Amino acid sequence: MVFFDTGWEFPGLLDHIDLLERKTGIEIVRLKPDRSFDAWMTKHYLPNQNRIGYGWPSPKRRWCTREKFGAINKYCKPFTPYIECIGFAADEFDRTLRTMAARRINKKNTSIRFPLIEWKITEADALKYCYEKGYDWGGLYKVFHRVSCFCCPLQRIGGLKKLRKHFPDLWKKMLKMDSRIEKNRGFRGYKTVHNLEERFADEEKQLTISRIIQ
């Protein structure tokens, strides 16, 4: 079992990985990027563009995904041929097709399987089973529908609002990260995290005023 630690994980997710290893007795190989994601985002020199840092990932610039898959492929290569099992659920069909298309690139002598899909297990089924076995991810799935890197710019606005409300320390960390980016600071829709902070704070203020008036 392989887990890629981006350095941007929720603490509860890291605790879950440790718990899973202890309870199952299965060794979990923890991979990390050769260079921290913070460094890629803020310090990596891009000579062709004459700037420092990739900036926040975006739908067309998913350097984070490239680093993740690159590290996993590098680790798995000595075991070729091998079968790669990915835990997508039966109701994640579109996501599965996208992943298969991406992972087939330069993947010779390997095959990909999706056990949960083969067993017709949905996201809700899988989550219920995990809860019954004592895995709760520190309550993350009580707050979020889907969990990835806490600072992922590709998550929905609703998820970012929940992050700000329930994990204020991580939100403050995102603001600091945002401040360190020299160029290409666009976090979501060409907005920075600081822009979103202003928006969310203003929405909270307007909601408070509305409640007082009522």
Strand content: 5-15%
The N- to C-terminal Cα distance equals: 55 Å
Q: How many structural domains in the coordinates?
A: 1
Instruction: Pick out the low-confidence regions.
Output: none
Describe this structure in words.
It is a single chain. The protein has one domain. Helix content is about 50%, strand content about 10%. The protein has 10 helices and 6 strands, in the order βαβαββαβαβαααααα. It has helices at about 10-25, 35-40, 65-75, 95-105, 115-120, 125-130, 140-145, 155-165, 170-180, 195-214; strands at about 1-5, 30, 45, 50, 80-85, 110-115. Strands 1-2 form a two-stranded parallel sheet. Strands 3-4 form a two-stranded antiparallel ribbon. The longest helix has 21 residues, at about 195-214. The protein is globular and about 60 Å long. The protein starts with a strand and ends with a helix. This is Phosphoadenosine phosphosulphate reductase domain-containing protein.
